[in-house]
Amino acid sequence: MNIIVILKRTFDTEEKITLSNGQINEDGAEFIINPYDEYGIEEAIQIRDKVGGEVTVVTVGSEESEKELRTALAMGADKAVLINIEEEVSDGDQFTTARLLAEFLQDKNPDLLFSGNVAIDGGSGQVGPRVADLLGIPFVSTITKLDINGQKVTVVRDVEGDSEVIETTLPLLVTCQQGLNEPRYPSLPGIMKAKRKPLDEILLDDLDLEIDDVKAKTKTIEIFLPPKKEAGVVLEGELADQVKELVSLLHTEAKFL
């Protein structure tokens, strides 16, 4: 089975993020594989080990993304591909990423594609659905279980705290939700093997695309950090007095009433 996993290099949002001149300051920032993409990597490896085939991880970015691709290889993926657009496209958006991925994948004949439900930095959840649409294949989002029987696929997806069961067929693109599996950590042997696994780099010219073909459809106007939380107010005294004070504060300070 030909399995493709789309991954993204993202900021580690558990680490401190700072801004400089309206842009996220990458100096000293920690980068990781988008956690939702890790579920896709793990599921792809498990399926390959059951039915055979090959797992390829692919990302759109710059040379810095090689670290995350090597991590995926160390987890157990077979091959990695970097679509390097650093020199040509500096302000791409989800359309840009999806267009590049679809162009790369169109002659690869993938049976199954995995992507994260969302990226923790942008949170748009657009790339997976856009790629499926461009490739003209079925798409199911937020999956928490996946069973394959020949060409038939049964998927369980999360729907706002409940579950939905969908039957479809290969080829198929799914986006992964927490609960699908527990991603493995790269082992020392896996890390050593990853150094010898193929990592191919592809440029915009290799995809027979022009810059205008992948020009962003959106523009970022401003980036800003959330406002700092103010200290809370502790109400004291008799309960009836606290209720009166709370109502007053909701009316005068919070403008809630």
Protein model, in words:
Strand 9 (139-149) and strand 10 (152-159) form a beta hairpin. The mean pLDDT is 92. Strands 11-10-9-12-8-1-6-7-13 form a nine-stranded mixed beta sheet, sandwiched between helices. The chain has a two-stranded antiparallel ribbon with strand order 2-5. The chain has a two-stranded antiparallel sheet with strand order 3-4. The chain has 257 residues and is α/β, with parallel strands linked by helices. Helix 2 crosses helix 5 and helix 3 (94-105) packs across helix 4 (127-135). The chain is built from six helices and 13 strands. The longest helix is centred in the first third of the chain and has 17 residues, at 35-51. The protein is 27% helix and 28% strand. It folds into two domains: 2-214, Rossmann fold, CATH 3.40.50.620; 227-257, no CATH class.
Helix residue percentage: 25-40%
Shape: globular
Question: Any guess at the CATH architecture of the largest domain?
Answer: 3-Layer(aba) Sandwich
Number of domains: 2
CATH class categorisation of the largest domain = Alpha Beta
Main beta sheet: 9 strands, mixed
In round numbers, the mean pLDDT is 92
Strand order of the largest sheet: 11-10-9-12-8-1-6-7-13
CATH superfamily of the largest domain: HUPs
CATH overall fold name of the largest domain: Rossmann fold
Q: Give the tally of β-strands.
A: 13
What is the H/E order? EEEEEHEHEHEHEEEEHEH
Distance between the termini: 59 Å
